Amino acid sequence: MKISKRLLNFAYVWRKLQQQWFQYRNPDAPWLTEQAVILLSTWLRESDIGIEWGSGRSTLWFASRVSKISSVESDLTWYEKVQGQLERSGLTEKVDYRDVPVGIKDSEPPRKNPYSDVADEFHDGSLDFALIDGKVRLACVERVMPKLKSGGLLILDNAERYVPNRVMGKHSTVINGMASPRDAHWDATLTQLDSWRAILSSNGIWDTRFWIKPETR
Length: 217
Description:
By secondary structure, the protein is of the alpha/beta class. It has one domain (5-212): Vaccinia Virus protein VP39 (Rossmann fold). The protein is 32% helix and 20% strand. The chain contains 6 helices and 7 strands, in the order ααβαβαββαβαββ. β1, α3 and β2 (68-73) form a beta-alpha-beta unit. It is globular, with a radius of gyration of 17 Å. The chain starts with a helix and ends in a 5-residue tail after the last strand. The model is unreliable at 174-178 (pLDDT under 50).
């Protein structure tokens, strides 16, 4: 049975209102799905060390819960704004905050660039979590996978752009046209992630996906 466009639009508006209500009640929470925020609230430990690409509310939220986070930002104006928030919150010592140019376009195949190459500064198996929520996401995913500990958490926000949501349909954001075609490079990386346990969270507008790194042999 076909669902009318009007009904789909109503469902989208309803989900949008639910997400906005959650953000209103939790003004400091990262701009992830509600399910993702709840999961991370219970998952993270004070001793954890992590990295994120794409800064903002997540930077302060993580910094208040973990030992250390490195945050990589490509927009200088936004970087300066978040830097001020960190200083006012007294969290600067817990955040290695970087203003780093990207060097390649999102549409290009992944290759070395200053932005994703920040991951190379970490030893393999040294990070407890990594949030990919900025530019050149595939390059960042590929760079950081070896840096995660066994049991470490790989988090990809807006994952519906690259990974089909088989529960809600091919792409959960198909209504507002945000889905991006996946290419062979993404397919190869997702094949590597097939051996990692995965968790899907969605608010019907966008997806936040988690992968848990398996024990290495």
